[in-house]
Amino acid sequence: TGIVFQDKQSYQVRTVLVSDDYTSYVELELPYLEGHLLAASTSDDQGFVYYLTVLQGDGMPHGTREAVVFKVDETGSEVAREPLDCGQDGLNMVKFGTFGSMDNVASLSYSGGELGLMIGRRMHQGSDGLNHQGAIAVVLDAGSLSIVKNHGQTSGHSFENLLTVSAAGEFVGVDMGDNFPRGVHLHKFSGSSMASRVCYTYKTEHGTSPNSPAGEQYPVYHEISNNGQTFYKWSNDNCNYTELGGLVEVPSGFLVAFAGERSELDNSRSSGLAYDPRNIGVVIVRKDFEKAPHDWENPSYVSDELVTSMLSLIHISEPTRLLSISYAVFCLKKKTHTINCMR
User: Fold this and answer.
1) Diameter of the chain by CA atoms?
2) In sequence order, what are the beta bridge partners of 152?
3) Average pLDDT in the 156-161 region?
4) Apex CA 53: angle with CA 48 and CA 58, to 5°?
5) 15 or 295, greater pLDDT
6) For 215-271, how does the pLDDT look when each residue is reduced to its tens digit (9 = 90+)?
7) CA distances, 108 to each of 33, 125, 139 (Å)
8) Residue 61 CB coordination number (10 Å)
9) pLDDT value for 295
10) What is the pLDDT, as a whole number, of residue 277?
């Protein structure tokens, strides 16, 4: 048992390994590159530790970032390191974050000789003159640390992600997209294939002028226009009104936990920063979710065939705290009247 972290003053990457009986620990310094941020880490069943570092700073519009994967043993000694191609045809990364502001999130997991990686980043400038943001799913060889498969984009924009491994040995991850698609987005991938489905979606703030940034003209959204404010049927809302909580495999599927607003589909309550109180949400998605019927023209649609347990929202009568972190301990009550407690 252990953790990998980066010292906020020296930026040295370290690991703390805890004994099996939790009575002692050892702290080790790990190899790292000057100016690099620790992005994600994991370990395997043989005691090897893997971690990804990315050159801090902003390379927009065309400055490719450096990214390196390290492998060390239980003593902290380097076994291997491999630079990853972050060019436009590789991981396509010009910004991950800075020491003062982590703009993106990465997750790393080990399974059967491979590493699964989900990472959000700013991309090289596109033909529209913008540096778009999104996350990708990548599989690496745990021996050579080289890229086996870059599955490409998971969601865009993607501001949070979590990654685990299923009992079948597949990488299972979840991230949040604000548009492509819009929702909590569940993924299952390996070195050869990938499947994705939205398992929860949320409201969106609509435009207040008939013309969208793309120059298209849209009609009035009468259903939510009120109090002298007229909305139109287009949106470019980067807010998700949701935070990821956890992802775990259960007998009936994959349980996704999150914090979301009770007015999750009320578009009239998405203007400005006046967010509603957030509630704890849970949904269980069938393990073979790639076989569920899917509306490819509306990727944010969640079908009844996708979920094995319908959405539960546990109400918290407290306004959302925008500038601080709050915690909650809650219980999920099954229909059999037994109680499972989760922290």
Assistant:
1) 66
2) 137
3) 92
4) 170
5) 15
6) 899 999 999 998 888 999 999 888 888 999 999 999 999 999 998 887 778 888 886
7) 19, 26, 10
8) 14
9) 85
10) 79
For residues 105-126, give the mean pLDDT.
97
CB 88 within 8 A of CB 116: no
328 pLDDT exceeds 80? Answer: no
d(CA 215, CA 130): 16
Convert 276-291 to b/e letters by CB count within 10 Å (16 or more is b).
bebbbbbbbbbbebee
Helix (H) or strand (E) holding 83: strand 78-84
The amino acid that residue 111 corresponds to is S
Residue carrying the six token digits 């799913």: 137
Please tell me the distance from the alpha carbon of residue 78 to that of residue 97, in angstroms, as a whole number.
Answer: 25
Average pLDDT over residues 291-312: 82
Classify residue 91 as left (phi > 0), alpha (psi -120 to 50) or beta. alpha
Q: Name residue 9's amino acid.
A: Q
In whole angstroms, give the CA distance from residue 294 to residue 316: 32
The candidate with the shortest Cα–Cα distance to 116, out of 182, 62, 192, is 192
Quick check: helix, strand or coil at residue 12? coil
Taking the C-alpha atoms of residue 259 and residue 56, their distance in angstroms, rounded to an integer, is 30
Say what the pLDDT of residue 298 is: 84
Return the closest-CA partner of residue 26 out of 35, 36, 17. Answer: 17
For residues 140 and 146, the answer to whether their CB atoms sit within 8 Å is yes
